[in-house]
């Protein structure tokens, strides 16, 4: 379980988001739910920029996304809202492509939506 949590943190946290280029080399052509188009390399460039912008404010983001905890800091929420909904959704799309996270494929979209809505309600509107 710790390795799954670490995988999520590595994908989302900017300082350890170095796996994105390797994912862009072999983007899977199917999702756990059916057909899923392979994403172009520019998508992964966008995701990498999102992750870098996200920063390191959410060290426990992996636990949040897989549903292990509901505890999220205001700093984490502010960082999430600051990157924007498109970046948030792109990061979730990448998580859904990680083979080691397949068992959470039904949880990740639900938890991602919960996290966005929760943070949108507690974070101040940023200019």
From TrEMBL:
<dbReference type="InterPro" id="IPR008502">
    <property type="entry name" value="Prolamin-like"/>
</dbReference>
<feature type="signal peptide">
    <location>
        <begin position="1"/>
        <end position="22"/>
    </location>
</feature>
<protein>
    <recommendedName>
        <fullName>Prolamin-like domain-containing protein</fullName>
    </recommendedName>
</protein>
<dbReference type="InterPro" id="IPR040220">
    <property type="entry name" value="DD11"/>
</dbReference>
<keyword id="KW-0732">Signal</keyword>
<dbReference type="Pfam" id="PF05617">
    <property type="entry name" value="Prolamin_like"/>
</dbReference>
<feature type="domain" description="Prolamin-like">
    <location>
        <begin position="49"/>
        <end position="119"/>
    </location>
</feature>
């Amino acid at each position: 379980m710790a390795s799954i949590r670490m995988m999520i943190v590595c994908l989302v946290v900017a300082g350890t988001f170095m796996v994105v280029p390797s994912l862009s080399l072999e983007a899977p052509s199917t999702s756990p739910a059916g057909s899923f188009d392979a994403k172009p390399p520019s998508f992964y460039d966008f995701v990498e920029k999102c992750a870098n912008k996200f920063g390191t404010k959410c060290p426990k983001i992996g636990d949040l996304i897989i549903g292990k905890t509901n505890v999220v800091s205001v700093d984490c929420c502010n960082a999430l809202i600051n990157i924007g909904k498109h970046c948030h959704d792109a990061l979730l799309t990448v998580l859904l492509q990680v083979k080691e996270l397949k068992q959470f494929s039904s949880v990740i979209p639900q938890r991602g939506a919960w996290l966005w809505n929760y943070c949108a309600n507690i974070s101040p509107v940023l200019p």
